[in-house]
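Office hours follow-up: a student asked to see two folded examples consecutively, so here they are.
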Amino acid sequence: MSEIRRSYCGLCYPRCGTLLHIEDGRIVKVSGDPDHPVTRGVICERGRLMPDHVHHPQRLNYPLKRKGEKGGGQWQRLTWEQALDEVAEKLSGLKGRYGAETLAFTHGTKRTYHWDCRRFFNLFGSPNACGVNNVCMCPSYATEYATYGGMIMPGFIEASCIVLWGANPVNSDPVGLYPKLVRAKKQGAQLIVVEPRRTKEAEMADLWLQIRPGTDVALMLGWIRLIIEEGLYDKAFVDNWTIGFEDLKAAAADYAPEKVAQITGIPEDLVVKAARMYATAKPAIIPWGYGLDKQGINATQCARARAILRAITGNLEIPGGEILSMAGDIGKIIDWEALEMNAAIPPSQREKQLGADMYPFFGFPGWEKNQAANKKLPEGYLAAPEAWHSNLAHAREVVNAMITGKPYPVKAAISLASNPLLSFPNTRKVFEALKSLELYVVMEYYLTPSAALADYVFPASSTVEQPELWLTRDFCMPCPQGIDPLYERRNSYDFYRGLGIRLGQEAHWPWETVEQAYDYCLAPLGLTFKAFSDQYGIFGEREFRRYEKYGFGTPSGKVELKSSIFEELNLPPLPVYREPVLSPVGSPDLARAYPFVLITGSRFMPMYHSEQRQIEKARKKHPDPVVTIHPSTAEKLGLAAGDWVVISTPTGKIRQKVRISDSIREDMVDLQHGWWFPESEEKLPGLFRVFESNANLLCPDDPEVCSPEIGSWPHSALLCKIEKENGQ
């Protein structure tokens, strides 16, 4: 029997519309849904891997309980009910001994629902949910809320100038952002690319600024100075809708083009030309770029300076510009506060959030200030600041508490679609922390290196095996479940509700299924999720410059070029550039031993972070981990393409295979991240060879290299050396 069913992808962040081609109950092919109003029939090579992912023989299909020592590779199959009973009993006992804060959580990139996790943890009483948010979008998310009350969504198609800053959408967003970029270029938009590598987008650019990694704030301050000095800012907007302009002018005064060129390595004439091109175009956009969030000490200030550039050039809330507000009543569809139940966790527990004393802006203190400012606006005007974006414990401090028991013991953790050994820095310390736990529970698709250390493992359903609501500024769209969950896979809502009921939370989990929770969200529209799934979504009517009616969601009601929230938290209220600690300039003595600038985290299709390593089609394209170096570097070191090399930093060393390309600077090394080897032995000491080629072994997490505002650790702008592996 053959049939075609509508569904969606979800193998990375967007929810692209798909058609599942099913024969005898098995997905045999995935194609793009041509009637989908957003993705319009386009899917990427990652999306076409969905059949391989859903039916992969290494998928986890049943709950498992560890037998023998942690990491010993021995498992016992349980029923869901038995596994939940045992986990709940252990959690209850640990809570009684140590308090609710003894439970931590690590999450990944939206394979699961997130809000159900917040709901469970708030009801349980633990403030210690954490993840890689510090280095992925959330420096931007939280900072933009403090600056102008929301995070922007750029209007690509109508833009006259696009600045891709630390973004490589052909590999990171090939269905959403990249086609819009191509279309905008065809329509005459100018393109500026700020990127240390010659990417495909850089080759398309009108101006390519090959920046020294980690120096982006200096370039932004240079642009701000020139825009102000030459009167290229939007004077009416600045006068009427911003505060702190004179302070900003003073903060940028030292960043003349010649100084910026000296810091960044970009020729002075390009610094000036690019600033003028951006400032004189209308509308102009600077979309979010992952490259800025992962650079460590300057990550938060990059987000601040970029937000300020958008504001002073008058590009906020205009057609084709940077949009904050929700269209029509779209913002009223999902009440995040009601779903997450953030008010349920008492102040006494909020105060125990690990890392909030060091990084108050990213924990409860900063989130509460952003939230309070936002609540002055009408309901649904802006998407409320979701707690999973901007109210988190700091992962390093959670890991430290697992190991040391200070400031209190963290004895239990839950990871959902999260692989902390491949996502957190300082991998060996993370390994020590996970090994130390009395209870480690993982819900996953495959037995990953982190899951191999668990006490209980639960099988997670794929995105096509579960329904979802996709909400953006302009639309709310149903993501219909394509197939029933195979074997005993379940979604994260079932997992958390099952635990919550066993731990006395039954009154707060009224919906038996996640679909019923979505019925609750859609009830004000007179819809059920099932009825909604028969259509393609609701699009709100876009209204621009809504701040003229309501102001901005900040304490002052204006764009805060000088942030009052940062100032109240004793953080720099204006953008400031800090030379990266582990750079040729920041550590010249160290640079003699480690002469190359290291970047990691560059995207490469069809891999997504540490995923897809099991899938044969993906591994045929990328059989081995690869490090890219310049031809002159290869010649100097006596290296040839395909050689195995050892890459070292003061934090650790790994091995990868050489690729030679003139797309990067001679003083740079570009290292693939996320590598482990599912085909290898699971049990310790092998652990799927997670310590062999994993870039995060090279990345430090010491406070001095992290951003002081939210603790972003560096995956780029580091120092390394590279040597031919012995025996070659």
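And the second, which I mentioned at the end of office hours:
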Amino acid sequence: MRKGFIITALICMLVTGYLSYAVSQWWLIVFVMVVLLVVMGIYDMVQTRHSIMRNYPVVGRLRYWMEDIRPKMYQYFIESDIDGRPINRIDRSTIYQRAKQQMDTMPFGTQLNVYEEGYEWLSHSIAPKDFNTLDHDPRILIGNKDCRQPYSCSILNVSAMSFGSLSSNAIEALNAGAKIGGFAHNTGEGGISSYHLKHEGDIIWQIGTGYFGCRDEDGRFSAEVFKKNVDRPQIKMVELKLSQGAKPGHGGILPAKKNTLEIATIRHVQPGTTVYSPPYHSAFNSPKALILFIQQLRELSGGKPTGFKLCVGKKSEFAGVCKAMVELDIYPDFITVDGGEGGTGAAPQEFSNYVGAPLMDGLAFVHNMLVGFGIRQHIKIVASGKILSGFHILRAIALGADGCNSARAMMMALGCIQALVCNTNKCPTGVATQDPQLTIGLVVDDKKHRVANYHEDTVNSFIELTGAAGLDDYKQLTRSHIYRRVFMNEVRTFEDIFPSLQPGCLLNGNIPEKYKQDLEMAKADTWQ
């Protein structure tokens, strides 16, 4: 790292300088080479564009040299789709190119196997719409009849990532990027820090089971502390986290190595300890109590949009929440649907791999339930779970979402290379670490523009795709616009795979067979 480089450089210069003077002038050549490397290293440490080079002078250049000499197709990162299939590595490369405002077109056509099971595509129109005539800044007005401060947010926002999980510089860059691009930044469940507030970007305050930022001495929800923090003008919405796709049914984890005194003070916990958030909320114990708690949060906030986030698990429980909404005539302003494919810096592998519904299944179900209960008009739906591209936004909206959140792609825009050491405090790019020797590599003034660039280009890509479908407005997208190959010789639309429901059908007795058991088990007064 930087300190090691400086010490090594001084030693090498002293040794080779002495040898060139006392032993042989041939050592002068070595001395000159060492000086050149030192100058190169100093440049690496002061430049602001490349985090790896700032943190690992000279040595870090190897990464970029290797990228330059190998074919571009091998730069694509090995990832898996939601069902475990290997997919093409285009998305990661596209994120970097958009963040850096580089050319994101590619030669020789698609790298995807279009005849492979699971391949998806948009049905385009022979008469597409001109991109220049479409709305380039689509926004969603969130707020229902009980909301007194509706919020107009972008169709793509920063998903929940806490200070503690991410570095202070990463939080600053995300919020500053949100300010530049006019989109919102979700705090994650780790509470509100000065780094969230410094650049005055719009904030969605997420409250998890640990109630960080609004808890009393015993770790329970405190209305007084909540009221004090939620009155900040930067906070535009409040999101109650029931579960997240990376580890549904399991509380958040902050490793001890990342729990600094500053973070511990914000969260009101002991520094240097591993912080385990409870797996469930102590502020409510039934669907009705959940809805009443959301109403309480909305009232305490002065009427700011308030909703909840979940990864779909037991379908009968969500049906019970819908019954509670109807009985109380109280509705959250929004519901964020996370997918089981979502990522995190620390979670048991079994929870990440095998618990929780994937985004598309959960999203289609939540939309159908709200429509079936006749309450969809009161609630906006936000999709969160591996949203990386314009097509991913389009696919989510076709399934029923109003907008999307992205975490993974925003981290990549910051410079994340997915080194997979988030939980060790050794992130080489300074994104997911609290080590000041590594966070210095992430320069806020550079990375904030990359975050804004990625957002702008991805939203534009989504709008251009909408126009390609022959639509004037993205709200005209339906499940029939997306096709999926389910077998080698069989193709179905999303409407075939995820059939829509008629408005109010779950209330008038016209219940589809696949929903009957869940509806019978659903209760508004208890989870079981």
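Two things to take away from it. The longest helix spans residues 444-468. The longest strand covers residues 235-241.
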